[in-house]
Design a protein that fits this description.
With 290 residues, this protein is mainly α. It has a domain at 82-258. The protein has 8 helices and 2 strands, in the order H-H-H-H-E-H-H-H-E-H. The protein has helices spanning 2-52, 82-109, 116-137, 141-146, 160-183, 193-218, 225-229, 248-289, and strands at 148-152, 232-236. The termini are far apart.
Length: 290
């Protein structure tokens, strides 16, 4: 009996130990949960404090308003045709170089006539047609005859330097060719600083003219290098009733009648050629069918 009692006592002690361990674990877990909850709450309070701090106001950047630039030409203007451009080029060529070529021809023929006045007159005509008239009327003589004008995309006149560059690029190319032709043989001399400068400048003028022609032929609006720089377009232009004036301007505008007649005759010739070609083609087709 004594052994059985001891065995039962040992079992009771084990049960007490087993019961005591879960209670201790439960007490430890209960105590740990409030501690963790307090830590989470502390972190949340710190986060709120961080959010509560006012953010530094960023400095407002002052942006300049960009000027509106026209993308294309408005619908009220029509781009000048190739015939308008040819008439303008022909008139400007005759006006700018007519007197000058006459002076050169007379000086080469050695007729004894004093050609200094002719050279001065030719230079004066070039200055008037290239600089003075475009600065006053925004058009040169060739544009008056062909009834054309350079305008920007919004219809306003381009900066006057544009007209100066456009009107003088052909003259500069001719001067550059003359400079290369006259000074190229002097490059072999010992003191050849001036020939090098002259040839280099002349080559620059000629290359600039070729670049202008290349861009003009590849552009949808027939714009050259300076037209692209100043966003200018050569358009057909007829002054309105409000723009008509008297005096020199009226006389220059009347020169457009000659251009209109020339364009009309040219178009009639083209129509006759096209009709004659069509008539020549029809007999050949009928003969082939036969």
């Amino acid at each position: 009996m004594g052994l059985l009692d001891k065995a039962g006592g040992v079992g009771d002690d084990n049960k007490k130990i087993a019961k005591a361990v879960p209670k201790a674990a439960v007490v430890g877990s209960v105590k740990a949960k409030p501690v963790m909850a307090k830590a989470v709450k502390a972190k949340a309070v710190k986060a709120k404090a961080v959010k509560a701090q006012p953010a530094k106001a960023a400095k407002a950047k002052t942006t300049r308003a960009k000027r509106a630039r026209p993308v294309g030409l408005t619908d009220e203007y029509e781009v000048a045709s190739d015939l308008n451009r040819r008439i303008s080029w022909l008139v400007n060529f005759l006006v700018n170089f007519g007197v000058l070529f006459a002076a050169i021809f007379i000086s080469l023929s050695d007729t004894g006539i004093v050609t200094t006045i002719l050279y001065a007159t030719g230079l004066g005509v070039i200055i008037i047609n290239v600089i003075i008239i475009p600065m006053k009327f925004n058009r040169n003589l060739g544009q008056f005859v062909s009834r054309t004008k350079f305008v920007k995309g919004d219809g306003s006149n381009p900066f006057f330097i544009h007209g100066l560059f456009v009107n003088s690029i052909g003259i500069l190319a001719l001067v550059g060719f003359i400079m290369i032709f006259t000074q190229f043989s002097n490059l072999s001399e010992t003191d050849n600083t001036i020939p090098i400068v002259m040839v280099s400048s002349g080559a620059l003028f000629v290359i600039l003219w070729f670049i202008d022609r290349f861009l003009r032929n590849g552009s949808e609006m027939n714009q050259g290098i300076f037209d692209l720089m100043f966003t200018a377009y050569l358009v057909k232009y007829t002054p309105t009733e409000d723009e008509k004036a008297s005096g020199i301007w009226a006389r220059l505008e009347n020169m457009g009648n000659f251009g209109d007649q020339l364009m009309k005759k040219t178009e009639e010739r083209r129509a006759k050629k096209s009709s004659s070609k069509a008539n020549d083609a029809t007999p050949n087709e009928s003969a082939d069918e036969a």
